Amino acid sequence: MMKDKALFLDRDGTINVDTDYLYKIEDFQFEKNVPEALKFFFDKGYKLIVVTNQSGIARGYYTEEDLKKLHEHIQHEAEKYGFHFTEFYYCPHHRDGVVKKYAIDCECRKPKTFFLKKAAKVHYLTLSDSYFIGDKPADMELGRKMGLTTILVSSGYGKETVKTCKDYDHYIQDFSELKKIIK
After folding, report:
1. Known catalytic residue: 12?
2. Could you say which of 4, 10, 43, 66 is catalytic?
3. Would you call 66 a catalytic residue per the annotation?
4. Which domain holds residue 41?
5. Cα–Cα distance list, 28 to 4, 16, 64, 171, 183 (Å)
6. Domain count across the chain
């Protein structure tokens, strides 16, 4: 069976501007050059899979329904550029949360590997041919654990992360540089 490859993408600070606990549709904005780059790789056959920690749910800032509506909006915005996201995986948990059912130490919060293992199985992915793109150490750690090529982007927390985290394969200023790395 033919296996596919993927770009695993952090959400806040990577594909969209990080506005601290984003859940309102009107606050969503793609980061610089993201739509054009994702369209390019979508056309090349990459699956585009978002993996995001959303502790705002556990903290009581917004609901899972709010998050699902935002992800539907993001998908709609992507389709305007001619691509779509294969999947949005999100962790609603945080052990210090105030919403009891989400206030747990789970198996899906990055840098834990649950979602990447699930995606590989469900979407028939070859992880060694896939990439993880993010702005935080947890993104880089998760990608490394699963044998992906890791790309740290300077947006979001990336400019701070690069000062302390050295365990990544590539560092880029914005998504326009991906074409130099991913063939």
Report:
1. yes
2. 10
3. no
4. 10-157+167-181
5. 29, 7, 17, 24, 29
6. 1
